[in-house]
Design brief:
Helices cover 28% and strands 23% of the residues. The protein is built from 8 helices and 10 strands.
Length: 269
């Protein structure tokens, strides 16, 4: 398209009929539940931009084609917008999950005296468990992208003498091979690039350090809650995750995708 040319907009079932012979410059898909189903359609198709309006509380950009700027231009602002409005009520809604966090951290068998970071720490539900795991001689750091989430985590961090950092999981503000354990609850599915995220987690972790990927619901239960169908090629499905871990410097040791939790534990090679 040249400057000054008319813009043609189409929607509905006839959108594939392109204007003239040139085709569409940009295809935007609004992800909504189909009329006859409670499930949202997850097929991206030919869309250049995917906007999720299935969750009515907040429309979120799920995908932007690389030629239009790529994830780095939108995922930070959209993630912050999504979580900022939920920070004050997050623990009210999900506070009962804390024992599951504690069990996951205990099962990872972290080393006493080590440095543990919680990437995407949210309101800090794992911080107390990480402090118990590494002891008072260890170091606990919570990192999150959203200032409002860190504000909600402030008291938790004070109680366990932890540190909170405003930071991006794709650009963790920690030097190479500086930590002994990384805890990440629900993080990977929120990143626009799972490979880059796993690689960055590996960068900051020492050899034989632990990675704990966790969610207090199994993948199937979580998908059902959000009205979508699991796909075998998703990053946290067992085969893709094993491959992803291997490609980014990890060895997957534990994989548990039961109804009540998701827990994957990997070791840094």
């Amino acid at each position: 398209m040249q400057a000054g040319e008319p813009i043609v907009v189409a929607d509905g079932p006839g959108w594939r009929r392109a204007p003239g012979d040139l085709g569409w410059d940009v295809v935007i898909w609004l992800r909504t539940p189909p009329p006859d189903s409670g499930d949202a359609d997850d097929r991206r198709g030919d869309a250049d931009i995917v906007v999720d309006v299935y969750v009515p509380a907040w429309p979120v950009i799920r995908h932007v084609a690389a030629r239009l700027g790529g994830p780095s231009t939108w995922y930070v602002s959209e993630s912050r917008a999504f979580f900022a409005i939920r920070a004050s009520t997050w623990d009210t809604k999900f506070g009962a999950d804390q024992p599951a966090y504690a069990a996951a951290v205990a099962e990872a068998q972290l080393s006493e005296g080590g440095t543990a970071i919680d990437v995407g720490c949210g309101t800090g539900r794992a911080l107390q468990s990480l402090r118990r795991a590494v002891g008072w001689s260890g170091t606990v750091i919570g990192i999150d992208l959203t200032p409002q989430m860190l504000a909600a985590a402030r008291q938790q961090a004070r109680d366990i003498y932890g540190t909170l950092i405003l930071g991006d999981a794709l650009r963790i503000p920690i030097r190479d091979a500086a930590v002994d354990a990384v805890f990440a609850a629900g993080l990977i599915t929120h990143l626009p690039d799972a490979y880059r995220g796993m690689h960055e987690l590996a960068r900051v972790t020492r050899t034989r350090g632990r990675l704990v990927l966790f969610h207090p619901s199994g993948r199937a239960a979580l998908a059902a809650r959000h009205g979508r169908t699991l796909r075998p090629d998703e990053p946290l499905a067992e085969v893709p995750l094993r491959s992803l871990a291997d490609e980014t410097g990890w060895s997957l040791r534990t994989y548990d995708d039961s109804p009540h939790r998701f827990l994957a534990i990997a070791e840094r090679r």
